[in-house]
Design a protein that fits this description.
- This protein is mainly alpha-helical.
- The protein contains seven helices and three strands; from the N terminus they run H-H-E-H-H-E-E-H-H-H.
- It has a domain of about 80 residues: Orthogonal Bundle (Arc Repressor Mutant, subunit A), CATH 1.10.10.
- The chain has a three-stranded antiparallel beta sheet with strand order 1-3-2.
- A hairpin with a 7-residue loop joins strand 2 and strand 3.
- It is globular, with a radius of gyration of 20 Å.
- The termini are close together.
């Protein structure tokens, strides 16, 4: 069986040449940047992500939130329970289908949007990128994520 992948040199196995490590370490740095910005609001980074989705479109099923955030219900449900206990949202069984849970913002959850309004500008400033550079980078990373998440199409092996 022969591989159709291009031959790579020895640098391909060095840490600083790994895309996965660049993304991982950038994610760690981004989360570290957000921590003090969110602490003043009493939020964790995952809670902020949930709120971002609900600020865009309130009244979603847990499954819709999970799809949007790439989280399974086993991860999302405890997070939503903590957010409900903090008073930022409500969870309610769907009247049409008791198996489904609907999530809506509370007035306190809506009020957090105004309090968090400066966060994107702080991140932009700290990134030392222009707005268009950051938008282009975001689009590239989203495109990569979508490609990596797509089902693998395996080509038949050559003999």
């Amino acid at each position: 069986m022969t591989s159709t992948a291009p031959a790579l040199d020895a640098r391909a196995q060095q840490l600083d040449h790994q895309l996965c490590f660049a993304l991982y370490s950038a994610s760690l740095a981004m989360t570290k940047l957000y921590k003090p910005l969110l602490e003043g609001l009493g939020l964790t980074y995952p809670q902020y992500l949930v709120l971002l989705v609900l600020w865009e479109r309130d009244d979603l099923m847990v499954s819709e939130l999970g799809e949007r955030l790439f989280l399974d219900s086993g991860t999302l449900t405890p997070l939503l329970k903590r957010m409900e206990a903090a008073g930022w949202l409500q969870r309610q069984r769907d009247a049409a289908d008791e198996r489904r849970v609907r999530v809506t913002l509370s007035p306190a959850g809506r009020a957090l949007q105004a309090q968090a309004a400066d966060i994107p500008a702080c991140v932009l400033q700290h990134s030392q990128c222009t707005l268009s550079e950051l938008q282009a980078l975001t689009a590239q990373v989203q495109q990569l994520r979508d490609r990596l998440a797509a089902p693998l199409s395996l080509s038949p092996a050559s003999s």
